[in-house]
Write the structure tokens for this entry.
Amino acid sequence: MILSPVSEAHLDRAFAALADPVRRAIIARLSRGAATVNELAEPFEISKQAVSKHIQVLELAGLVSRTRDAQRRPVHLEAARLEAMTAWIDRYRLAAEQRFRSLDAVLERTTQPAIQADATTPITDKEQQS
Amino acid sequence: MILSPVSEAHLDRAFAALADPVRRAIIARLSRGAATVNELAEPFEISKQAVSKHIQVLELAGLVSRTRDAQRRPVHLEAARLEAMTAWIDRYRLAAEQRFRSLDAVLERTTQPAIQADATTPITDKEQQS
DNA sequence: CGTTTAATCAACGTATTAGTTGATCAAGGA
DNA sequence: TCCTTGATCAACTAATACGTTGATTAAACG
């Protein structure tokens, strides 16, 4: 699976886009299939124009795209951008968890030296990357 | 692995927190280990106060925590909240990809336009975006 | 004590955001 | 053609976000 590099500006917009409950609800809805602006606006109390703006925000973030069907403009989810977000998060989450497990091993070894029979866990060094 | 439920407000704050390149850089740095405000501020051109505010934003989002060590207040990454974010995204990303694969299968199966049983998924479209 | 170091608080300017209402455009259908 | 439908544009307001500088707290050190 090839993941195209996403610029910092793209990440800015993607994370900002999901920082709104209305937009997250739109994403959730679109995961079940494409929908028009009217359909997407229906569950909300806010105006249709406001929903249209939310969709523009999502589109600028690369999270959705639009096609044309007569006077309707169905909105589609772009899973690739969602994947780019999880890829960013996981990169650092997994590094931190790995580091945490290594630290755990060290603590266990130093506080109870007698019980320690397994020394296969790497202790030091792990850094680098931008 | 038990994932504690995260409120909508928490997701709001967590996604908003990552929608800033400075804060993402802080997260990246913390994935390699805890750091003080001064250490975190060093790579940036902005004032230390501004970095302090960024850390507060991350803390309010549950993405970092702070302990106390004399007059230093080391900042630690909270991987659990990062995981909650990927869990949210993956829920809908995987659903969409699943749906997409099913649609693919349908298209492959019916090279000739057979009876359309499900009208919720438009077939004639073409994705593209910058 | 007084000083240094680490960090936050307070007040402020500016930019961006989310919402509103009213007008407009664009594609069908009568 | 005129009318309806789907959606966007334009202008405006209120609230929030990001950065600044200057003052302040709090612990450690001499």
Remarks:
- The radius of gyration of chain A is 22 Å.
- Residues 36-38, 48-49, 52-53, 56, 70-73 of chain A lie near DNA strand D (CB under 10 Å from a C1').
- Residues 79-111 of chain A form the longest helix (33 residues).
